[in-house]
Design goal:
The protein has 127 residues and is mainly α. Helices cover 70% and strands 0% of the residues.
């Protein structure tokens, strides 16, 4: 443990406004990486939270950071695929129904022209 740490104690009010240099943080991270100190020892010696020290480690560590892996259960994947298929089928059905509606509207329009009858108006009156 460095002799510099022994002289580092401060009162709580002063600790609130402290800022550590990047070089200071890198040195503490290096101490942890080399096994000369633990997160708890650094935290206690310099009166800084464990959380802060872990943030320093994350930011200044020399080790390659592992990739994040998303773990999804097989049943969730199966459900998602099934739901996506169901959505595609429903979209196809909605498209077919829209074509049918447009076809019927066109047939009514042609019948109105041919027979000179307002079919739409009569359909609405019956309701």
């Amino acid at each position: 443990m460095s002799t510099n740490r022994k002289n580092f104690k401060s009162n709580p009010r002063d600790r609130r406004y402290r800022r550590f240099s990047e070089g200071f943080k890198r040195k503490r991270v290096q101490e942890i990486e080399e096994g000369r100190a633990t997160v708890g020892e650094i935290s206690q010696a310099y009166e800084v939270s464990d959380t802060s020290v872990y943030k320093w480690l994350e930011k200044y560590t020399r080790r390659e950071k592992p990739e994040r892996t998303i773990v999804e259960s097989k049943s969730d994947t199966t459900k998602i695929i099934a739901l996506e298929k169901r959505i595609a089928e429903l979209e196809r059905l909605v498209g077919q129904k829209q074509i049918e509606i447009e076809f019927k509207d066109k047939m009514i329009e042609l019948a109105e022209k041919e027979y000179r009858i307002d079919i739409k108006k009569k359909l609405n009156e019956k309701r």
